[in-house]
Structures are given as structure tokens and as C-alpha cells.
């Protein structure tokens, strides 16, 4: 398991400012359906002073995503918009007394949501797909511009670090060569590029969760699936939604989204987040699908 600080645990189990914000006048939506992380940041900005009077969030993802979103809302309340825009993803991680290297992409998502919300308030267009940048990682839809920006902002040196911060390269690995080319470009453009200096020490990589020692029986598998659904249910119920297991057919797990979750614009992200938790818990690749996709009985 990842090693989380006490602050990360606190903001995960007791998130601050979670849920819709009435009278929000700045809203930023970011996220990746492919990886299951999605975040909506809502701001209430004083139109005269541009001070952020309140900030709320709605997110679906891992514990680090929830904690990072909660921390961000606490950090920016009372700031002007220009002050808030200076908050970096590293500031978010530092506020939480650190994040596991593999989860730094959660703080990057928070920074982007803030940029999107401020742009929305100011009536500006903000694009998270950086259309001018070539798509590098097809698995997680990460482009060259984002990778280069994150490398520069966080002084990254290796493909592994880029994956931790953006998820790029964490799938099929076909984009590793492209990431290395961007790393080389940034290094060449940096002051003192001719000097050879070792990369900064990186925290030891926590041991990844291991798959079960033996294949689960169908009863054991369903029990673990129900445990995952039970763990996400309180979060969905806070937004007047719910989820229940519909069927298990091999690698496909069908669920029924209820209440506000049914037909919600974030339905795909919700299913992606549940799928990620299922994979981690079951130790095997599975697909989580809505019950409407169940094959008709012959």
C-alpha cells in the first residue's frame, strides 16, 4: 500500500468543503475518464476585490485526489485570484505533508482545476487538452505541452517521475521514447544545460499492491466487489446518488447507478473510479460497466 501522511488521511476521511457551492461564479472541470480521476472546483469570488470568499469541490478518484482537492479549497480561501494562481501542485503536496510519488498527478489535477475555475470566472477560455501539443500518451490522453510544463514546473528528470506526475507512460509504455525526447529538450533549453548534475533524490517507491496469492472463487470475488462498492457509497450518497452490483460476468462487472448518479454528466468518471478501485482490490484487470450494457439473455 502507499504510505500516506496523517494529513492526507485526515483530508480523505474528513474532506473540507465537499459538495456543491451555491452562488459559485467560477467553476473549473478537469479530469481523465480513462484514469477515473475527475474534479470540479467551484469558487465564490468577490467581484470588487477578486478575493475568493469560498471554495468547494466535487471529485471522484483515489484518496489522494480527494485529499488534494480538500487541501486546495482550504489553501485558496481568502486569497485573491492572482495569489491563488501562484499556488503550485507542489504547494498542495507540501500542505498535505507530502504525497506518494505515484500520486503526485492528483496535485497537478488540482492546480489545473484552479486555473480552469479562474478562467471561467474571468470569462476566458481554458483548454486542458493543449490543442497545439501533439498527443504523446494515448493511454491517458496526455500531450507534449502538458508533459513539458510539468517537467519544468517540478524539475523532473526521468520517465518514471513524469509518469508519477502526469500518468503518461503508465499504460502500454509505447510513449516512453517520446517522453525521453521531451526530457532531453527541456534539459537542453535549461540554463547550465552543459553541466552534468545528478537528479534530485526521489523517495523510495512504495511496494505496489500484490495480487492475491490464489485465484478468488466467485463467492470471494463478489464479496470483495461489494466491499469496494460499500467504500464508495457514502461519497455518492452525499451527492444524492448510489450504486449497486447488477452482475459479474468474467472480467466484466456490471453496476446499477441510482439517484443523481444515473445519467449524470460525470457517470463515465464515476465508473472509471470504481473500476480503478476494483482492479486494486481484486489484483486483476476488470471492466466496470453500467447495467444498461448487460447483454440481452437469449
Automatic annotation (TrEMBL):
Q: Which Gene3D superfamilies match?
A: 3.90.1010.10, BFD-like [2Fe-2S]-binding domain, Fe-S cluster assembly (FSCA)
Q: Which GO terms describe its molecular function?
A: 2 iron, 2 sulfur cluster binding; iron ion binding
User: InterPro entries, per this entry?
Assistant: BFD-like_2Fe2S-bd_dom, BFD-like_2Fe2S-bd_dom_sf, FSCA_dom_sf, N_fixation_NifU, NIF_FeS_clus_asmbl_NifU, NIF_FeS_clus_asmbl_NifU_C, NIF_FeS_clus_asmbl_NifU_N
Give the cofactor note: Binds 1 [2Fe-2S] cluster per subunit.
Please list the GO biological process terms of this entry: iron-sulfur cluster assembly
Which residue ranges traverse the bilayer? Answer: none
Q: Per the record's keyword annotation, is Iron included, yes or no? A: yes
In this protein, which residues make up the domain named NIF system FeS cluster assembly NifU C-terminal? 225-288
**Which Pfam families does the annotation name?**
Fer2_BFD (PF04324), NifU (PF01106), NifU_N (PF01592)
Which SUPFAM superfamilies does its entry note?
A: Fe-S cluster assembly (FSCA) domain-like, SufE/NifU
Locate the residues binding [2Fe-2S] cluster: 137, 139, 172, 175
Does the record's keyword annotation contain Phosphoprotein?
no
Q: Where is the composition biased (Pro residues)?
A: 197-211
Q: Which residues bind Fe cation?
A: 35, 62, 106
Annotated NIF system FeS cluster assembly NifU N-terminal domain residues: 3-125
Q: Which UniProt keywords apply?
A: 2Fe-2S, Iron, Iron-sulfur, Metal-binding, Nitrogen fixation
Residue segments, region Disordered = 190-212
Q: Which residues form the BFD-like [2Fe-2S]-binding domain?
A: 135-184
Give the cofactors, semicolon-separated. [2Fe-2S] cluster; Fe cation
The family note in this entry says: Belongs to the NifU family.
Purpose of the protein: May be involved in the formation or repair of [Fe-S] clusters present in iron-sulfur proteins.
Question: Mind telling me which PANTHER family this protein's record contains?
Answer: IRON-SULFUR CLUSTER ASSEMBLY ENZYME NIFU HOMOLOG
What is this protein's name?
Nitrogen fixation protein NifU
Q: Which organism is it from?
A: Rivihabitans pingtungensis
Amino acid at each position: 500500500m502507499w504510505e500516506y501522511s496523517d494529513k492526507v488521511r485526515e483530508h480523505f476521511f474528513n474532506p473540507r468543503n465537499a459538495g456543491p457551492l451555491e452562488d459559485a461564479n467560477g467553476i473549473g472541470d478537469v479530469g481523465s475518464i480513462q484514469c477515473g480521476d475527475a474534479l470540479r472546483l467551484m469558487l465564490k469570488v468577490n467581484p470588487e476585490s477578486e478575493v475568493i470568499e469560498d471554495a468547494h469541490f466535487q471529485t471522484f478518484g483515489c484518496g489522494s485526489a480527494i485529499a488534494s482537492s480538500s487541501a486546495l479549497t482550504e489553501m485558496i480561501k481568502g486569497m485573491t485570484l492572482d495569489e491563488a494562481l501562484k499556488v503550485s501542485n507542489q504547494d498542495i503536496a507540501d500542505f498535505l505533508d507530502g504525497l506518494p510519488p505515484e500520486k503526485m498527478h492528483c496535485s497537478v489535477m488540482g492546480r489545473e482545476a484552479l486555473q480552469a475555475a479562474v478562467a471561467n470566472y474571468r470569462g476566458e477560455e481554458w483548454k486542458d487538452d493543449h490543442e497545439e501539443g501533439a498527443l504523446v500518451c494515448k493511454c491517458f490522453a496526455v500531450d507534449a505541452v502538458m508533459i513539458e510544463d510539468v517537467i519544468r514546473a517540478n524539475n523532473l528528470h526521468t520517465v518514471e517521475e513524469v509518469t508519477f506526475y502526469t500518468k503518461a507512460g503508465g499504460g502500454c509504455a509505447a510513449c516512453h521514447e517520446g517522453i525521453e525526447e521531451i526530457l532531453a529538450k527541456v534539459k537542453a533549453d535549461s540554463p547550465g544545460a552543459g553541466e552534468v548534475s545528478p537528479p534530485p533524490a526521489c523517495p523510495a517507491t512504495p511496494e505496489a499492491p500484490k495480487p492475491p496469492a490464489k485465484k478468488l472463487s466467485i463467492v470471494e470475488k463478489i464479496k470483495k466487489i461489494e466491499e469496494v462498492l460499500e467504500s464508495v457509497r457514502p461519497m455518492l450518497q452525499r451527492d444524492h446518488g448510489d450504486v449497486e452490483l447488477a452482475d459479474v460476468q468474467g472480467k466484466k462487472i456490471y453496476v446499477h447507478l441510482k439517484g443523481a448518479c444515473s445519467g449524470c454528466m460525470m457517470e463515465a468518471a464515476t465508473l472509471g473510479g470504481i473500476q480503478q478501485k476494483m482492479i486494486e482490490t481484486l489484483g486483476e484487470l476488470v471492466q466496470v460497466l453500467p447495467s444498461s450494457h448487460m447483454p440481452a439473455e437469449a
